[in-house]
Structures are given as C-alpha cells and as structure tokens.
Design goal:
single chain; alpha/beta; Leucine Aminopeptidase, subunit E, domain 1; Aminopeptidase; ten-stranded mixed beta sheet; 15 helices; 34% helix; elongated; disordered N terminus; binds ligand BES; binds zinc ion; binds magnesium ion
C-alpha cells in the first residue's frame, strides 16, 4: 500500500529564511547589524589600454556616487580580469564596500567551440567571486548588479555561497549572507527570482548528495523531499513501500535493497501543471544512498564519495521542486528508487539471477553494477504504467563515463534526436553541458549473451565501453519511443573546475534538466 507523505510532519524550507532574498546554509540566526556590500560588474575593453566599461546599473551607481566609483577603480586598476574582483572602500555612504567584478568582454555570447553561452557563464563566475570576497571581508548583506542577466547573477551568487557545514560547530561554518538585486526593473526582479529558485534547488540537490549516508537513508531522503514539496501546488508525493515493490514484481530493485538493513523506498512525485489530457514527462533518478559495491566490494580509498550515489535521485527531487515552484505548464512524474548497496547475509552474490518487472532475467555477475538493476524496474514501471510522453533517467551509473568525459559534460544516451537537441540547448544556456553518446546494437550484444539468463549486468568485454554497455542494458527495459539516459557519475563532484561551485558534491546537471523541462513545456 502507498504511504502518504503527510505523515512526515511539518514543512520547512531548509536553506532559506523567511525574508525572500535571504540565503543561508544552516540554522544560525539573522544578524541585523550586518555590514552592507555591493557588487558591480565591469567589462573589459577590446583594447586593454582603454580601461573599463561599467554595466548600465554600474554606471547609474557611479553617478549616484558622484563619479567616485570610476575614480577609485581607476586608482585600483583600472581593469578587473574576467572572473576576478577588486574590493573598493568609501565609494558610497550606503555601502561599506563595493566589489567590482570582471565580466570579460561585453561582446561575449554563444561560443560554438565551447558550446556554451559565455556571457551567462562569465556573469555567474564574476558574481560568485564577488559574493565570496564580500563575505570574507565581513559583509552580511549584498546587493547584486544584475549585469544585464539577473538570473545568471542570482545563480552565481546562491551557488557560490553554498557549503554543507551543518554538522560542524558554529565558528567553523560559513557566515550567512542576504542577497538582493540592485537597481533592477520589474523584469530583472522576476529573472532574479528564477535564478534564486534554480540556484537554491541545485543547492538542495547538493545537500542531499553531500549528507552522510548514516543521515540520509532512503527513508530520510523521502522525508526531506516530501517536506520540500509539501507547500507547493499541484504536487502529490507517494512513498511506495517494499511491499508495493514486491507486488509490482520489482525483483531487480529488491535484490539490491535486501543486502542492507535499511528499508527501500520507491518515491513517486506527481506534478500536474499541464492540461490533464497531456501525457506526462517521466524523470527517473538512481537513489543508491550508499554504494559499497556489495560482495564485488569497492576499494577503500575514496569510498566515502559513494554517499553521493543518489545524485540522480537528488537531481530529480530538486528538479521537481524547481518545476513546481516555477509553475511550469507541463505534467511531470518523478520516480526515485531508493536503497543501499551493502553486504549482509542476504546480499546479491555474483552469478545470482533475478527477474525484472518486465519478466526479463538478469545474471548479476558484478554486484557493483547495481544502479542498472534498480533503474531497470523503475523504467519498466514508467513505460508500463504511466503512458509517458518521454522518459529521462539520471544516474551516477559508471566510472567509465568519468574516464570518457570527466566533469566536462554529462554523457547522454538517447533514442530521440529531439530530446537530444532540447537537452543540448538547455546545457548551452545553463553552462552545465551534455554530450551525446552511442546506443548501438554493438553494445547490446555485449550484455544480452548471458550464460544463465536473458541479460548479464556487465559487458562481456570488461571495462571496455563501460558507460555504453550500461546504457545498452537500460535500453532493454524501455518500451516507450522517446527515452534518454544521462550518466552523471563524472559530474557528481566538483573539485575546482566550475568556479561558481565550491568543492564537494555538485548537484549537476539540475539546472539543465529544469531548462529542458521548461523547453518541453513550451512545445506542448
Ligand atoms: N556508483 C558506481 C559508479 C560511480 C563511480 C559513480 C564513480 C560515481 C563515481 C556504480 O554503481 C558502479 O560501481 N559501477 C561500476 C560498474 C562496473 C562494475 C560494470 C563501475 O563503474 O565500476
Ligand atoms: Zn552505484
Ligand atoms: Mg556500484
């Protein structure tokens, strides 16, 4: 029987405070005697000797400071390199300090080689550098120049201020910063709000991923997601039980779950923002809250990172929050199978055979290839029961995709060029890119010749094309025409590659996914 999420009690909007623009990472209190700072963007001139060019809001502020901003900047610089910042004091009575941030060339735009909107990326990186420097210097209220794209500015600011430090003592935590957009018009305000939503939702995904596995069990994941979604309209959340999964013959999913003492949960989130007759877009996320590898155990070094093996689930959960908050006019269903991959006396053993919901049997030759087992049943359920318009799954599925692409892009496998083009376009806009990978029959042959069963859960050529054989395996459980699989193992963690994300779990590519859904909504 389905368990209603309402039992999970009172709602809270963790990571936010009642004031609209307030951003914080923890539950510390708001400081009213805060110092105030301003971020102002500046462009590079084509010719360095010509100095700098302020943004329109920057130029207005310069006027209100009687030209002091430009004057002090001329002394301090005058140029500010792209993504760098210069802190100025005594510019204006309203602000203790002004961070002038380098936006690069004013002509920046779509870069074909990089497949990215460079203008937006430059704004995110510059505002990120500015807010971090202001926080470092003791500022607690920051007004942000929208830099002609308030959405990108808000994303850069919220993403850069994030850190997961709620398990640390107070004086080791990053200080709270309140953010506001400066001097914008009504359109800027709306776009600023959208950016805050997207940034904060990506930060929610980062929190879910970063949380230690002893805190974030499958049940706790369902509880936190339920609480986040509770205040939003047109959303129902159902936490299906192990019993429900048994009734639905999800033996592949249950075979992984039974290796742990934690109960599995199959979370189903329904958002009805579109016309009721329109078929839903289904998003599926791998929710392995800890992956030890099982009997095919992983090496000890860096195994702690496997607390993030629910990155697909975190992306789907937070995308659902963003989609419902933005009230996108589309029907979307999120499916999140949640369990641990551990090693008790009932755990899967190499050579075991299980039967997925669609009746296909699977020989489990490697218990560490568990993600594809839990996704197999979720994909069967999506296609058989939900009449989807399209299905998109996200999973930290293979180390092999990290070998192929690293953190440069999410590997995307799809049966639909239309889905591919929409996702590629979304990635260009968000800066969180995707790269298309093949779903050839060539790879299917490497997983469908099993000694004991219909399929083997690993490719017969070992590590060769590991991301492609994993995708080929998933394809065996998909019956709808338009399907995409996103292997996000390579983008799971940020070291220092993305300047506006700190070190740690990335929450990528959540903003791309939401942008993609927004695109699908407008196409209906
Ligand atoms: N969760 C891992 C994949 C992973 C690796 C995610 C690194 C994030 C960072 C997955 O369950 C796994 O272990 N995959 C195996 C598959 C292999 C046994 C065919 C892998 O990639 O080694
Ligand atoms: Zn895994
Ligand atoms: Mg594994």
């Amino acid at each position: 029987m389905a368990t209603s999420m309402s039992k999970f009690g009172r709602l809270y909007w963790g990571g936010f405070c009642a004031a609209k623009h307030t951003f914080h990472n923890n539950k510390a209190t708001f400081c009213s005697s805060a110092k105030k700072g301003l971020i102002v963007g500046v462009y590079e001139k084509e010719n360095q000797e010509e100095g700098f060019e302020l943004t329109s809001v920057g130029a207005q502020f310069d006027q209100s400071s009687q030209g002091k901003l430009a004057q002090l900047l001329n002394i301090a610089g005058p140029t500010v390199k792209k993504g760098k910042t210069k802190l100025l004091y005594g510019v204006h009575e309203d602000y203790n300090s002004v961070a002038v941030v380098g936006l690069g060339k004013a002509t920046a735009g779509y870069d074909e080689d990089e497949e990215v909107d460079t203008k937006k990326e430059n704004i995110r990186a510059a505002v990120a550098a500015g807010v971090k420097q202001l926080r470092e210097s003791g500022v607690r209220d920051v007004d942000v120049d929208p830099c002609s794209d308030a959405e990108a500015a808000a994303e850069g600011a919220t993403l850069a201020l994030y850190s997961y430090d709620e398990l640390k003592e107070q004086n080791k935590r990053k200080k709270l910063v309140n953010l506001s957009v400066h001097g914008g018009n009504g359109r800027d305000e709306e776009s600023w709000q959208r950016g805050l939503t997207l940034g904060n939702c990506q930060n929610f995904a980062r929190t879910l991923m970063e949380m230690p596995a002893n805190y974030l069990t499958p049940t706790k994941f369902a509880e936190m997601t339920g609480q986040k979604l509770q205040p939003l309209q047109n959303v129902t959340v159902t936490a299906h039980t192990k019993h429900w999964a048994t009734q639905n013959k999800m033996e592949a999913f249950l075979s992984v779950a039974k290796g742990s003492d934690q109960l599995p949960v199959f979370l189903e989130i329904k958002y009805s923002g579109g016309e009721s007759e329109n078929e839903p877009l289904v998003l599926v996320g791998k929710g392995v809250t800890f992956d030890s590898g099982g009997i095919s155990i992983k090496p000890a070094s860096n195994m702690d990172l496997m607390r993030g093996d629910m990155g697909g689930a975190a992306n789907v959960a937070s995308a659902m929050v963003a989609i419902a908050t933005l009230k996108l006019p589309i029907n979307v269903i999120g499916l999140i199978p949640l369990c641990e991959n551990l090693i008790n006396g009932q755990a899967n053993k190499p050579g075991d055979v299980v039967r997925a919901m669609n009746g296909k049997t699977i020989q489990i030759d490697n218990t560490d290839a568990e993600g594809r087992l839990i996704l197999a049943d979720a994909l069967c359920y999506a296609c058989a029961k939900l009449q989807p318009r399209a299905v998109v799954d996200l999973a930290t599925l293979t180390g092999a995709v990290d070998v192929a692409l690293g953190s440069g892009a999410t590997g995307m496998f799809t049966t639909s060029t239309n889905l591919w083009q929409n996702m590629q376009k979304a990635g260009i806009r968000t800066g969180d890119r995707v790269w298309r990978m093949p779903l050839y029959e060539h790879y299917t042959k490497q997983i469908n010749e099993s000694q004991l069963a219909d399929l083997n859960n690993i490719g017969k050529h070992g590590r060769s094309a590991g991301a492609c054989t994993a995708a080929a395996f998933l394809k065996e459980f998909v019956t709808c025409k338009d399907w995409a699989h996103m292997d996000i193992a390579g983008v799971m963690e940020n070291k220092d590659e993305i300047p506006y994300l700190g070190k740690g779990m990335s929450g990528r590519p959540m903003r791309t996914l939401v942008e993609f859904v927004a695109g699908m909504a407008s196409k209906q």
